[in-house]
Amino acid sequence: MNSTPMHLLRLLLLLAMLPLAACTDPRSNSLSRLRHADAAGLRAEVAQLTAKLLPAAGPELVPIQPELWPVGLLKLRPLRLNLYRDGLAVSLQASPGFEYGLHIVAAGADAQLKSTERTQYEKLQDGIYHFTQKR
What domain count does the chain have? Predict the structure, then answer.
């Protein structure tokens, strides 16, 4: 039996699935959403959230409830927002064991994020990083 048609069919299916795989790549997904946003405006919104919600002394993490999400951040279509002392983690995509998104440093702050064993950061532009975090 000739298996060439079967190999051809498999190759065609693989090629058809490549664009779908590219759409689900977490980094590409984050970059796509960031392209449609005002980066300076996002950093200003993070500064406002920090001043309003993060006391000088107290918790290192403040989950932001959806009713408090600023309009600019809503445009990113986040799953959740968590405010930290070094900025805002905007979770955009999750998979078993991992979470992906953007970490936005407040306007006027100069935090340089360092990767850890649990969280990897990649600088995309001034004050904005892509993150991958193990859950």
Answer: 1
